[in-house]
Design a protein that fits this description.
15 strands
């Protein structure tokens, strides 16, 4: 089983914190869509021996596409790949795109899962992040969407300057009031070369408080778990049976094909990434060449990847898998490197699985990087 990720590189406006590849001009939208469908055709041999179980429209803002454009891309996938009977087909969407008419039309399309970028239900937060929607639109789109989709995820951001713990709790409770079965939540991070970084340096916006972000992470975890959400990955909470299949496949190391400018692909020990430039992407596809660079992951790279993804999830890192895939020296190295974290109660060995504890979960990425192997033993 594998998945297809489709990157739609257009947004109405630039969020101050975002460093993903996108353009605020949609002049080349038709050309990009044509190139995306051609790339799907060109690369069909890469997934010919597997069945597609997830199709994920990310970006950018995929909800800027019309229903006909979305259906055209999905039909191209079906015409070139073997797709499972009931695939998870997700569309990332912004609230300002989700009118009553658009939601109804989407519900009649093959899209069966919405991932809505709410980020906050407070006007101040949305303006600080330069989101295209307002707080009322955030609520209105959910009021409509829950009548047409059972599988909805929303994004929320914590650690926003001047967002108190009380306001954060109100954000969470507002989300819960709609009966949403999945929430993805991320700390506001200051990425290089973003407007947010520039504003913080100039003193226009307060810097992010890591201690407050950690507090709000654990507030979120406590409230959602009390409401029958399973914290299955550091940033993701889902009701039983409604985890993101697309993201879960990524964390479990399943192959996926990335289509569109800047999209990444992964197959076993091969990783590739498309050019982050719409014009160059279009030109390459028109010339029947594939605009990507690739690398072969070394044994050590593959080991580090398993550590990084495993420690972020409830499934952890299987010691047996490390032994079978890499050998005893890697098992010994992992035991040695993880000892200080197990002693400090940040990691735990449980039934042959290395996992982060509740105390260590917020720090999982930093812990994982300390367990990485830099040189073959």
């Amino acid at each position: 089983m594998s998945g297809i990720y489709i990157h739609i590189p257009f947004c109405k406006q630039a969020c101050y914190y975002c460093n993903f590849h996108f353009s605020t001009s949609i002049k080349k939208k038709n050309e990009v869509i044509a190139a995306i469908t051609k790339e799907i055709e060109f690369r069909k041999s890469e997934l010919e021996n597997t069945i597609i179980e997830t199709i994920y429209f990310g970006g950018g803002t995929p909800s800027l596409l019309s229903i006909n454009e979305i259906n055209y891309i999905i039909n191209t996938v079906y015409n070139n790949h073997s797709v499972t009977e009931n695939p998870e087909i997700t569309l990332e969407a912004n609230p300002d795109d989700l009118s009553n008419e658009k939601i109804i039309a989407l519900s009649k399309s093959p899209i069966n899962r919405l991932s809505i970028g709410i980020q906050s239900f407070f006007e101040y937060d949305l303006k600080l992040m330069n989101r295209a929607h307002n707080a009322e639109e955030a609520k209105q789109c959910l009021e409509i969407a829950i009548n047409y989709f059972n599988n909805i995820s929303i994004d929320l951001i914590y650690g926003i300057p001047d967002c108190s713990n009380e306001q954060w709790i109100e954000n969470i409770n507002t989300a819960l009031s709609f009966g949403i079965p999945h929430i993805s939540s991320y700390a506001l991070t200051v990425e290089p070369k973003t407007a947010l970084e520039s504003f913080i340096k100039k003193g226009i916006i307060k810097n992010v408080d890591d201690e407050k972000a950690q507090e709000q992470f654990y507030i979120l975890k406590e409230i959602l778990e009390k409401n029958q959400f399973i914290h299955y990955e550091t940033s993701n909470f889902g009701k039983e049976g409604l985890f993101s299949k697309n993201n879960t496949a990524y964390w479990l190391g399943k192959p996926y094909l990335g289509i569109g400018p800047s999209a990444h692909s992964f197959f076993g020990n091969q990783r590739s990434w498309n050019v982050k430039n719409n014009a160059k992407y279009i030109k390459a596809i028109q010339q029947s060449t594939l605009p990507f660079e690739s690398e072969t992951l070394t044994k050590t790279d593959q080991y580090n990847e398993i550590i990084m993804t495993g420690l972020r999830t409830i499934w952890g890192v299987s010691i047996e898998k490390i032994r079978n895939n890499f050998g005893e020296k890697y098992v010994e190295y992992l035991a040695q490197q993880s000892k200080k974290y197990t002693d400090d109660g940040l990691l735990i060995f449980e039934n042959g699985i290395l996992k982060t504890t509740k105390k260590g979960l917020f720090l999982s990425d930093g812990i994982a990087s300390d367990l990485f192997m830099l040189n073959l033993l």
